[in-house]
Specification:
10% of the residues lie in helices and 34% in strands. It is mainly beta. It folds into 3 domains: 30 residues; 93 residues, no CATH class; 148 residues, Immunoglobulin-like (Sandwich). The protein has a 5-stranded antiparallel beta sheet with strand order 10-9-12-16-14, with no helix packed on it. Strands 11-18-17-13-15 form a 5-stranded mixed beta sheet, with no helix packed on it. A 3-stranded antiparallel beta sheet has the order 1-2-6, with no helix packed on it. Strand 1 and strand 2 form a beta hairpin.
Length: 335
Protein backbone atom coordinates (compact mmCIF):
# COMPACT_ATOMS: atom_id res chain seq x y z
CA UNK A 1 0.00 0.00 0.00
CA UNK A 2 2.81 2.39 0.87
CA UNK A 3 4.63 1.56 -2.37
CA UNK A 4 1.46 2.22 -4.35
CA UNK A 5 1.03 5.60 -2.66
CA UNK A 6 4.67 6.47 -3.35
CA UNK A 7 4.32 5.69 -7.05
CA UNK A 8 1.06 7.64 -7.28
CA UNK A 9 2.52 10.71 -5.58
CA UNK A 10 5.68 10.50 -7.69
CA UNK A 11 3.69 10.33 -10.94
CA UNK A 12 1.48 13.22 -9.87
CA UNK A 13 4.55 15.30 -9.00
CA UNK A 14 6.09 14.52 -12.40
CA UNK A 15 2.92 15.56 -14.21
CA UNK A 16 2.72 18.88 -12.32
CA UNK A 17 6.42 19.55 -12.96
CA UNK A 18 6.02 18.83 -16.67
CA UNK A 19 2.99 21.12 -16.94
CA UNK A 20 4.79 23.97 -15.18
CA UNK A 21 7.77 23.50 -17.51
CA UNK A 22 5.56 23.68 -20.58
CA UNK A 23 3.83 26.76 -19.20
CA UNK A 24 7.19 28.42 -18.61
CA UNK A 25 8.27 27.62 -22.18
CA UNK A 26 5.03 28.96 -23.61
CA UNK A 27 4.01 25.60 -25.13
CA UNK A 28 0.83 25.42 -23.06
CA UNK A 29 -1.30 28.52 -22.62
CA UNK A 30 -3.04 29.10 -19.27
CA UNK A 31 -6.81 29.66 -19.29
CA UNK A 32 -7.94 33.28 -19.85
CA UNK A 33 -8.40 33.95 -16.13
CA UNK A 34 -5.16 32.27 -15.04
CA UNK A 35 -4.99 29.55 -12.40
CA UNK A 36 -4.09 29.87 -8.73
CA UNK A 37 -1.55 27.02 -8.98
CA UNK A 38 0.39 28.89 -11.65
CA UNK A 39 3.34 30.83 -10.17
CA UNK A 40 2.69 34.60 -10.04
CA UNK A 41 4.51 36.70 -12.63
CA UNK A 42 5.89 40.21 -12.44
CA UNK A 43 3.09 41.65 -14.61
CA UNK A 44 0.38 40.78 -17.11
CA UNK A 45 -1.62 38.51 -14.80
CA UNK A 46 -5.13 38.62 -13.34
CA UNK A 47 -6.54 40.08 -10.15
CA UNK A 48 -8.86 37.78 -8.21
CA UNK A 49 -11.71 39.28 -6.19
CA UNK A 50 -11.99 37.43 -2.87
CA UNK A 51 -14.88 37.03 -0.47
CA UNK A 52 -13.43 37.00 3.05
CA UNK A 53 -16.70 36.31 4.85
CA UNK A 54 -19.60 38.03 6.53
CA UNK A 55 -20.76 38.71 10.04
CA UNK A 56 -22.96 40.81 12.32
CA UNK A 57 -22.32 44.44 13.17
CA UNK A 58 -23.20 46.04 16.46
CA UNK A 59 -26.26 47.80 15.01
CA UNK A 60 -27.89 44.51 13.97
CA UNK A 61 -27.00 44.68 10.28
CA UNK A 62 -24.46 42.42 8.56
CA UNK A 63 -21.24 43.21 6.71
CA UNK A 64 -19.93 41.37 3.64
CA UNK A 65 -16.12 41.66 3.68
CA UNK A 66 -14.07 41.57 0.47
CA UNK A 67 -10.46 41.73 -0.57
CA UNK A 68 -8.44 40.67 -3.60
CA UNK A 69 -5.33 38.87 -4.81
CA UNK A 70 -3.22 40.72 -7.39
CA UNK A 71 -1.08 37.98 -8.90
CA UNK A 72 1.39 40.47 -10.37
CA UNK A 73 4.44 40.74 -8.14
CA UNK A 74 5.54 44.14 -9.49
CA UNK A 75 2.47 45.61 -11.21
CA UNK A 76 0.09 47.80 -9.26
CA UNK A 77 -2.98 48.45 -11.40
CA UNK A 78 -5.59 51.21 -11.44
CA UNK A 79 -9.02 50.15 -12.73
CA UNK A 80 -11.79 52.78 -12.56
CA UNK A 81 -15.30 51.93 -11.46
CA UNK A 82 -17.22 50.71 -14.48
CA UNK A 83 -17.38 47.74 -16.80
CA UNK A 84 -13.97 46.44 -15.70
CA UNK A 85 -14.46 47.00 -11.96
CA UNK A 86 -18.07 46.51 -11.03
CA UNK A 87 -20.34 45.00 -8.40
CA UNK A 88 -23.84 43.98 -9.47
CA UNK A 89 -26.76 44.13 -9.05
CA UNK A 90 -27.22 47.65 -7.78
CA UNK A 91 -23.73 48.92 -8.61
CA UNK A 92 -21.30 49.28 -10.13
CA UNK A 93 -19.87 51.25 -7.16
CA UNK A 94 -20.05 49.65 -3.71
CA UNK A 95 -16.92 51.32 -2.36
CA UNK A 96 -14.43 48.85 -3.84
CA UNK A 97 -10.85 49.93 -4.59
CA UNK A 98 -9.79 51.32 -7.94
CA UNK A 99 -6.07 51.07 -7.19
CA UNK A 100 -4.90 47.48 -6.71
CA UNK A 101 -1.75 46.82 -4.73
CA UNK A 102 0.36 43.75 -5.40
CA UNK A 103 -0.19 40.45 -3.62
CA UNK A 104 -2.97 39.33 -1.30
CA UNK A 105 -4.89 42.24 0.24
CA UNK A 106 -7.29 41.22 2.99
CA UNK A 107 -10.61 42.84 3.86
CA UNK A 108 -10.21 46.01 1.80
CA UNK A 109 -13.85 47.05 2.09
CA UNK A 110 -17.18 45.93 3.47
CA UNK A 111 -20.71 46.14 2.14
CA UNK A 112 -23.37 46.61 4.80
CA UNK A 113 -26.59 44.67 4.23
CA UNK A 114 -29.75 44.30 6.35
CA UNK A 115 -30.15 41.41 8.74
CA UNK A 116 -32.78 39.84 6.48
CA UNK A 117 -30.56 40.00 3.36
CA UNK A 118 -31.02 36.23 3.06
CA UNK A 119 -29.64 34.45 -0.01
CA UNK A 120 -29.48 37.50 -2.25
CA UNK A 121 -26.16 37.50 -4.10
CA UNK A 122 -23.80 40.17 -5.34
CA UNK A 123 -20.97 39.65 -7.83
CA UNK A 124 -17.68 41.57 -8.05
CA UNK A 125 -16.05 41.44 -11.50
CA UNK A 126 -12.50 42.63 -12.18
CA UNK A 127 -10.85 42.85 -15.62
CA UNK A 128 -7.06 43.23 -15.40
CA UNK A 129 -4.53 42.74 -18.20
CA UNK A 130 -7.27 41.17 -20.31
CA UNK A 131 -8.14 38.59 -17.62
CA UNK A 132 -11.70 38.59 -16.27
CA UNK A 133 -12.37 37.19 -12.81
CA UNK A 134 -15.39 37.41 -10.56
CA UNK A 135 -16.72 36.21 -7.25
CA UNK A 136 -20.31 35.91 -6.06
CA UNK A 137 -20.95 36.46 -2.38
CA UNK A 138 -23.80 36.48 0.10
CA UNK A 139 -24.49 35.65 3.74
CA UNK A 140 -23.15 32.17 3.14
CA UNK A 141 -23.10 30.25 6.47
CA UNK A 142 -19.65 28.61 6.06
CA UNK A 143 -18.10 32.08 5.79
CA UNK A 144 -19.51 33.48 9.03
CA UNK A 145 -17.02 35.72 10.92
CA UNK A 146 -17.00 37.43 14.30
CA UNK A 147 -15.29 40.69 13.33
CA UNK A 148 -14.99 41.92 16.90
CA UNK A 149 -13.52 38.97 18.78
CA UNK A 150 -11.34 36.01 17.88
CA UNK A 151 -12.95 33.36 20.04
CA UNK A 152 -9.88 31.11 19.69
CA UNK A 153 -7.71 33.45 21.75
CA UNK A 154 -9.90 36.30 23.01
CA UNK A 155 -8.28 38.90 20.77
CA UNK A 156 -10.22 42.04 19.80
CA UNK A 157 -9.51 44.58 17.04
CA UNK A 158 -7.56 47.76 17.75
CA UNK A 159 -9.34 51.10 17.57
CA UNK A 160 -8.55 54.13 15.41
CA UNK A 161 -9.70 57.74 15.21
CA UNK A 162 -8.72 60.70 13.05
CA UNK A 163 -9.16 63.54 15.54
CA UNK A 164 -8.04 63.64 19.15
CA UNK A 165 -11.63 64.01 20.33
CA UNK A 166 -13.21 62.34 17.30
CA UNK A 167 -15.23 59.13 16.97
CA UNK A 168 -13.54 55.74 17.28
CA UNK A 169 -13.70 53.10 14.57
CA UNK A 170 -13.25 49.38 15.09
CA UNK A 171 -13.40 46.38 12.78
CA UNK A 172 -14.18 46.37 9.05
CA UNK A 173 -14.74 49.65 7.16
CA UNK A 174 -18.52 50.02 7.41
CA UNK A 175 -18.72 53.65 6.29
CA UNK A 176 -17.42 54.38 2.80
CA UNK A 177 -15.31 57.26 4.14
CA UNK A 178 -14.83 58.64 7.64
CA UNK A 179 -13.08 61.99 7.03
CA UNK A 180 -12.47 64.50 4.23
CA UNK A 181 -9.22 66.44 3.83
CA UNK A 182 -7.90 69.00 1.35
CA UNK A 183 -4.45 69.13 -0.26
CA UNK A 184 -2.45 70.81 -3.02
CA UNK A 185 -0.52 69.02 -5.76
CA UNK A 186 3.10 68.55 -4.79
CA UNK A 187 2.62 69.78 -1.21
CA UNK A 188 2.84 67.26 1.66
CA UNK A 189 -0.43 66.73 3.51
CA UNK A 190 -0.25 65.84 7.21
CA UNK A 191 -1.93 62.54 8.02
CA UNK A 192 -2.61 61.96 11.70
CA UNK A 193 -4.36 59.07 13.36
CA UNK A 194 -4.66 57.84 16.94
CA UNK A 195 -4.68 54.10 17.68
CA UNK A 196 -5.37 52.01 20.78
CA UNK A 197 -5.42 48.28 21.51
CA UNK A 198 -5.65 45.75 24.29
CA UNK A 199 -2.49 43.93 25.49
CA UNK A 200 -1.11 41.13 23.25
CA UNK A 201 -3.39 38.15 22.83
CA UNK A 202 -3.06 34.92 24.77
CA UNK A 203 -3.77 31.33 23.74
CA UNK A 204 -6.02 29.59 26.30
CA UNK A 205 -5.73 25.92 27.18
CA UNK A 206 -8.88 23.84 26.87
CA UNK A 207 -10.85 24.04 30.09
CA UNK A 208 -8.84 26.93 31.53
CA UNK A 209 -10.82 29.04 33.99
CA UNK A 210 -9.92 32.29 32.23
CA UNK A 211 -10.74 31.11 28.73
CA UNK A 212 -13.12 33.28 26.69
CA UNK A 213 -16.76 32.32 26.42
CA UNK A 214 -17.76 29.87 23.74
CA UNK A 215 -18.32 31.31 20.28
CA UNK A 216 -21.92 32.00 19.27
CA UNK A 217 -23.43 29.27 17.16
CA UNK A 218 -22.88 29.74 13.47
CA UNK A 219 -25.88 29.51 11.16
CA UNK A 220 -26.35 25.98 9.78
CA UNK A 221 -24.83 25.43 6.35
CA UNK A 222 -27.31 24.34 3.66
CA UNK A 223 -26.23 20.99 2.25
CA UNK A 224 -26.66 22.10 -1.37
CA UNK A 225 -24.76 25.42 -1.22
CA UNK A 226 -21.24 25.32 -2.76
CA UNK A 227 -18.41 27.49 -1.45
CA UNK A 228 -18.44 30.64 -3.62
CA UNK A 229 -14.81 31.75 -3.61
CA UNK A 230 -11.30 30.89 -2.56
CA UNK A 231 -10.19 32.18 0.81
CA UNK A 232 -6.72 32.47 2.32
CA UNK A 233 -5.49 29.89 4.80
CA UNK A 234 -6.42 30.39 8.42
CA UNK A 235 -3.89 30.20 11.24
CA UNK A 236 -4.08 30.50 15.02
CA UNK A 237 -2.00 33.40 16.28
CA UNK A 238 0.01 32.46 19.32
CA UNK A 239 0.87 34.73 22.21
CA UNK A 240 3.23 34.34 25.17
CA UNK A 241 1.16 31.46 26.57
CA UNK A 242 1.64 29.32 23.46
CA UNK A 243 4.31 26.64 22.96
CA UNK A 244 7.66 28.35 22.61
CA UNK A 245 6.80 31.01 25.16
CA UNK A 246 7.22 34.77 24.92
CA UNK A 247 10.33 34.55 22.73
CA UNK A 248 8.50 32.66 20.00
CA UNK A 249 5.54 35.04 20.20
CA UNK A 250 7.84 38.05 19.93
CA UNK A 251 9.32 36.67 16.70
CA UNK A 252 5.83 36.49 15.18
CA UNK A 253 4.82 39.93 16.37
CA UNK A 254 5.82 43.00 14.33
CA UNK A 255 7.81 45.64 16.11
CA UNK A 256 5.55 47.72 18.31
CA UNK A 257 2.24 46.86 19.91
CA UNK A 258 0.29 48.45 17.04
CA UNK A 259 1.00 49.27 13.41
CA UNK A 260 -0.80 51.98 11.43
CA UNK A 261 -0.51 51.47 7.66
CA UNK A 262 -1.48 54.04 5.01
CA UNK A 263 -2.03 53.09 1.34
CA UNK A 264 -3.59 54.61 -1.76
CA UNK A 265 -7.06 53.18 -2.38
CA UNK A 266 -8.48 55.37 -5.15
CA UNK A 267 -7.33 58.38 -7.14
CA UNK A 268 -6.12 59.68 -10.53
CA UNK A 269 -2.43 60.18 -9.73
CA UNK A 270 0.48 58.84 -7.73
CA UNK A 271 0.57 59.17 -3.95
CA UNK A 272 3.86 59.25 -2.06
CA UNK A 273 3.42 58.48 1.63
CA UNK A 274 6.46 59.39 3.72
CA UNK A 275 6.04 56.53 6.22
CA UNK A 276 3.50 53.96 5.05
CA UNK A 277 3.90 51.83 8.20
CA UNK A 278 4.11 53.41 11.64
CA UNK A 279 4.87 51.24 14.68
CA UNK A 280 3.47 52.35 18.04
CA UNK A 281 3.95 51.30 21.66
CA UNK A 282 1.09 51.66 24.15
CA UNK A 283 2.70 49.92 27.13
CA UNK A 284 -0.15 47.43 27.39
CA UNK A 285 -2.66 50.16 28.26
CA UNK A 286 -5.85 49.33 26.35
CA UNK A 287 -7.27 52.82 26.97
CA UNK A 288 -4.23 54.72 25.73
CA UNK A 289 -4.47 56.23 22.23
CA UNK A 290 -1.07 56.71 20.61
CA UNK A 291 -0.57 59.31 17.88
CA UNK A 292 0.71 58.21 14.44
CA UNK A 293 1.84 60.93 12.02
CA UNK A 294 3.04 60.87 8.42
CA UNK A 295 2.52 62.87 5.20
CA UNK A 296 1.09 62.19 1.74
CA UNK A 297 2.05 64.03 -1.45
CA UNK A 298 -0.13 63.87 -4.57
CA UNK A 299 1.06 64.10 -8.18
CA UNK A 300 -2.17 65.27 -9.81
CA UNK A 301 -5.41 67.04 -8.88
CA UNK A 302 -8.58 65.10 -8.21
CA UNK A 303 -10.37 63.10 -5.54
CA UNK A 304 -8.40 60.40 -3.75
CA UNK A 305 -9.23 57.80 -1.14
CA UNK A 306 -6.57 56.69 1.31
CA UNK A 307 -6.91 53.54 3.39
CA UNK A 308 -5.75 53.59 7.00
CA UNK A 309 -5.33 50.17 8.56
CA UNK A 310 -4.33 49.47 12.15
CA UNK A 311 -2.97 46.01 12.99
CA UNK A 312 -2.32 44.38 16.32
CA UNK A 313 0.08 41.47 16.80
CA UNK A 314 -2.06 39.19 14.63
CA UNK A 315 -0.90 41.05 11.50
CA UNK A 316 -2.54 41.60 8.13
CA UNK A 317 -6.01 40.10 7.89
CA UNK A 318 -5.62 38.81 11.44
CA UNK A 319 -3.31 36.13 10.08
CA UNK A 320 -6.16 34.96 7.84
CA UNK A 321 -8.79 34.94 10.61
CA UNK A 322 -10.32 38.29 9.46
CA UNK A 323 -10.13 39.38 13.09
CA UNK A 324 -8.53 41.38 14.55
CA UNK A 325 -7.65 44.57 12.72
CA UNK A 326 -9.41 47.82 11.86
CA UNK A 327 -9.46 49.95 8.72
CA UNK A 328 -11.12 53.09 7.41
CA UNK A 329 -11.10 55.22 4.25
CA UNK A 330 -10.25 58.93 4.16
CA UNK A 331 -11.12 61.19 1.20
CA UNK A 332 -8.60 63.81 0.04
CA UNK A 333 -9.63 66.52 -2.44
CA UNK A 334 -6.47 67.69 -4.23
CA UNK A 335 -6.20 70.95 -6.15
Amino acid sequence: MRAHRFVTVTMATAVVTACLTLLAEGQVKPPPGGVLAEPPGNSGGPIYATFEGWGPLKDGSNALLLGYFNRNKLQEISIPIGAENRIEPGGPDFGQPTHFLTGRQYGMFAITVPKDFGNKKLTWTIVANGHTTSVSFWTNPPYWIDFFKNTANGNEPPRIKFAAAGPEYIGPPRERTVATLSATVGQPLDLTAWAADQPPTQVFETGAADAPAAAPARPPAPADEPLPAFIGGRVVNAGPGAPGGAAAAAQRRPRGDIQVIWKKYRGPGDVKIAAETISLENGGDAKKFVEAKTTATFSAPGTYWLRAQVNDNSGNGGGGDQCCWTSAHVVVNVK
